[in-house]
Amino acid sequence: EFMHAYWDREEAQVKAVEHLASFLGDKNAFPCLLACTGLITSAMKTHIDSVELQRGGCRLLLEILSQALERNLDVGRSLDDSVISSLLEIVRKYSENEELLSLVCTLLMMISSSEVAAENLRKAGAIPDLVMSIRKFLHNEQICLSCCGALWSLVVSESSIDKALLKSAISASSAVLQEHLQNGTVAEAAASALWALSLQGRFTENEYESTTALLLDALRMNLGRPVLVKNTCQALAHLLRLSEISAFSFVTDSKGNGIKLVKDAYYFHSDDPEVVESICALINEMVQYDDIALDMVSQKMKEMLSEIKSRFPSS
User: Fold this and answer.
1) Of the four listed, 189, 225, 287, 308, which is most buried by Cβ atoms within 10 Å?
2) Is Phosphoprotein one of the keywords (predicted)?
3) Of 201, 229, 227, 202, residue with least CA distance to 215
């Protein structure tokens, strides 16, 4: 009631957000806090020039949505279109503010986990904003992690995205993976985004070769991360299906043959059915090329394949 009554007073909204934040530790207050998300973003939009309100509002929303996700709630169904448009307006208004952008992009990633919200984000034009944020702050791990995570959600289940948007997203995701190869968490998000983008089949000839090499690097440097291995193998499988250039790059990579890397990935994660399934998907594409199939024989993959067949008959 206070926020409604003094909607035009910036200092009143700042104090209200601070007061709401004091209830975060009260489990009984959570339903009320969740119901206030629209009011919070409305205040942020009304007073868009108040950096203090944007910062406090974003932090409060992050805590509320984190609690919602911990409760397995579909956050997208709790947020209407005005919330998403308000957050994207903040991204555009504060595109040079690294601290605030980091908070907002994290919010967008959390929201995009909902199919409903992901669809609304696509319609609101979020993809160019995510790409822009990556390009401006490629060094920022949190921004890159959040933007790639959101890109994955926006692309993975959609087949009618503009070609130019896909190309810019491929370029940005590849740049993140190249920049943060040694950061497993960020590399995982970037590899996942590239997998989703590979499903769209919009890579150029040059991108097939460079992306294949980059994914092999990610696999090589983060072999212990099951999600990264799974999604990287899926991405490689799609690239091999689409291009002979990718297949050639796969076995002639200057840092090591991809076949040996696949074997290493299997023996590292042989007890993880999801990872093994993705490895099988990649192997299925590998054997479509005679040169790779011959190389597989010379590297004695038959034993590994027999083991997979005995342990995972459905594979």
Assistant:
1) 189
2) no
3) 229
Distances 23 to 14, 38, 77, 83 between C-alpha atoms, Å: 15, 17, 22, 21
The percent of residues above 90 in pLDDT, for the chain, comes to: 72
Listed in sequence order, the residues at least 6 apart from 99 whose beta carbon sits closer than 8 Å to its beta carbon are 55
Contact by Cβ (8 Å): 279, 232: no
Domain boundaries, the chain: 1-73, 81-187, 203-314
More confident of the two residues 159 and 294: 294
pLDDT of residue 17: 97
Question: What is the C-alpha end-to-end distance of the chain, expressed in Å?
Answer: 59
Neighbours of 303 (CB within 10 A): 9
For the chain, the helix, strand and coil percentages under 3-state DSSP, each to the nearest 5: 75, 0, 25
**Three-class HEC string of 110-175:** HHHCCHHHHHHHHHCCHHHHHHHHHHHCCCCHHHHHHHHHHHHHHHCCCCCCCHHHHHHHHHHHHH
